[in-house]
Amino acid sequence: MIDSHPGLYSRFSQHSSLLEDIRKAVNGEYGAIVCYERIAGMAPDAETRNRILEIRNDEIRHFQRFSQLYYRLSGIHPKPVLSEPCPAEYRAALRFAFQDEQETVDFYHEIADRAGHTDIGHAFRRAAADEQNHAVWFLSWLVSR
């Protein structure tokens, strides 16, 4: 019985919360993949388009890694859903991507801190570093146009 083992309940609760956050990360990465394909299609030149597609490839890698972690913890393959639509106008989409990347950095650091020095923590710390780099690119395009 869970009530007679408070440590067990605490671990289950932490695991459940972590699993929910990984599910949210999977959905976020899925949304970024879809959005960045749209943004790349609106890019003003080939150099910008190629960089956006490189960022999109990072998001695909994160999506695959987080999906693997979710499956490993739950035994269920995640079914990603789009939580927010990508703006249709280029500058609005860049602003949206920049803000999302910045918020994602903080979210991934929180997950990594809770996961500790595990492969989950490592995966989210690595992804947070990538997301911060992506935010810098999106900001540079916002201020240069």
What does this structure look like?
- This protein has helices spanning 6-42, 46-74, 90-115, 119-144.
- It contains 4 helices and no strands.
- Helix 1 (6-42) runs antiparallel to helix 2.
- The N and C termini lie far apart (61 Å).
- It is mainly alpha-helical and 145 residues long.
What would you say about this model in short?
This protein is mainly alpha-helical. Helix content is 81%, strand content 0%. It has helices at 6-42, 46-74, 90-115, 119-144.
SSE order and pairing:
Layout: H1 6-42, H2 46-74, H3 90-115, H4 119-144
The mean pLDDT is 90
Please state the overall shape, judged from the principal axes of the Cα atoms: elongated
Distance between the termini: 61 Å
- For the record, the count of structural domains works out to 1
The ordered H/E elements are: HHHH
Number of helices: 4
Strand content: under 5%
Structural class: mainly alpha
The CATH topology? Ferritin
The share of residues in helices is over 70%
Can you summarize the main beta sheet?
none
Q: List low-confidence stretches.
A: 1-13
How many strand units? 0
Q: Rg from C-alpha positions?
A: 17 Å
CATH architecture group name: Up-down Bundle
Could you name the key traits of this structure?
Ferritin; mainly alpha; 145 residues; disordered N terminus; elongated
